[in-house]
Amino acid sequence: MIRVSLIAISLLYGVLSAWAFRRTANIPALHACRRRLTAYLMELRLFSSEPALIWSAQKSLLRENGRLLFLLLRPVLILAIPTTAFLFALDSIYGWDPLPLQRAAVVTAQLNRPLLPSDARDRLEAPPGIAVETPPVRSTIDRQISWRVRPVSQSSSRLHFSVTGAGAVASIAVGYPRSHWLLWFLSISSVTALVAALGMKL
User: Fold this and answer.
1) In the predicted model, is pLDDT for residue 165 greater than 90?
2) By Cβ atoms counted within 10 A, which residue in 33, 36, 102, 150 is the most buried?
3) How far is CA 119 from CA 147, 181, 188, 202, in A?
4) What sign results for the dihedral spanned by CA atoms 31, 32, 33, 36?
5) Does the pLDDT of residue 163 top 80, yes or no?
6) What is the pLDDT of residue 202?
7) Is residue 78 within 8 Å of residue 20, measured between CB atoms?
8) CA dihedral for 186, 190, 193, 195, sign (positive or negative)
9) Which of 39-43, 116-120, 130-134 is the least confident region?
10) What is the mean pLDDT of residues 151-176?
């Protein structure tokens, strides 16, 4: 399910990207290029029985498409750098969906020390809405301890680890499902940018 905050961010990004494109692109040159492309396309239709004119129009179309790409290169590069960093930041927030109810997932504790015999008694303490279905499964080579859990009701509480040694847990990995936030973001921001561009008469 798409979040309201993601919709708001997508709308804002669409408007800002249209504004940035207008500020960085050569709009008169783009309009002139578009008019020439339209003229060459009409030439293809009008002179379809003249091979020499068709060949000339096709070469002109290729040339104008190259000029169009060159005109778009500057604003696209300027937008690409902050957009890439922005997408990485958004992925850290919206990149994962909550664990689905009644679907098993694996929780793995990465230790910063070799596993000890006493780690067989390590525990994962879960809130009432999450069932821990297995005892700890240890991987001595990877220095990892894993449990299988299953959400049985809605819960937003924290998991607690009982691991021998203070500060022994270096990181925690949970098998969250990937979110489709990027598809929503690109769809909403693209439509918004198009509408904003029409409003700005790009």
Assistant:
1) no
2) 33
3) 13, 38, 49, 64
4) positive
5) no
6) 61
7) yes
8) negative
9) 116-120
10) 76
Q: Which two tokens stand for residue 2?
A: 């798409």
What whole-number distance in Å separates Cα of residue 2 and Cα of residue 21? 27
Could you tell me which residues come within 8 angstroms of residue 162 by beta carbon, excluding any fewer than 6 positions away?
A: 122, 123, 124, 125
Could you tell me where the DSSP H helices lie in the chain? Answer: 4-24, 27-46, 51-94, 181-199
Q: Specify the 3-state DSSP secondary structure of 168.
A: coil
Spatial separation of the C-alpha atoms in residues 118 and 139, rounded to whole Å? 14
pLDDT for residue 93 = 87
Task: With CA atoms as reference, report the closest residue to 136 among 166, 171, 109, 158.
Answer: 109
pTM (two decimals): 0.69
